[in-house]
Amino acid sequence: MTGAMDLYTVPGCRVGVRPPTAADAAASAEAIRRSEHISHWNPADPNDLPDLIRRQGDTFRTFLVIDLAERGLAGRINVSNIVRARFCNATLGYDAYTPYAGTGRMTEALALVIDRVFAADGLALHRLEINVQPGNDASIALARRMGFRYEGFTPRMLFLNDAWRDHERFALTAEEWPGAEKTILPS
Questions:
Q1: Which of 120, 132, 124 is nearest to 171 (CA)?
Q2: What is the pTM of this model?
Q3: What integer pLDDT is reported at residue 44 of this predicted model?
Q4: How far is CA 135 from CA 17, 97, 106, 141, 167, in A?
Q5: Which end of the chain is less enclosed by CB atoms within 10 A, N or C?
């Protein structure tokens, strides 16, 4: 993902992932508005893409999931809380947009992003975490499908929809991801 317009894909995938641009704001807002299922778990703001673009940098990255056949916006993946040095860790979050939710496209997209997160020529991280509210069965199933292991339960972890919400924690290291370059503690 060398430039904002590059589309990272592999042969056979139905999706590509790329960083957002200002030109994506209207499509992003529309995708969030039509995807009512995510508001229960993640109170996404339809107008937040310009802010997410401004926040791109060393500690936060956003990737849009694009359906290759229709060129529609299928979802968004955030890699946040990126910490380097001895920790080399980040938190992964995702939303699948209607009508693509439940079609396997986010599984493909997460594989692309995880490949880049662990790659030496990507973010070169060692560990990823996913935090999911209990009851969000689709997101928990996706985390498990991607090979993330259950690590525990955190009460009142995140303030969402006017209340502190419990979360279940899942994690994956580069050593557990097929094909990832095995890293040694960075210098």
A1: 132
A2: 0.89
A3: 82
A4: 27, 19, 19, 11, 10
A5: C
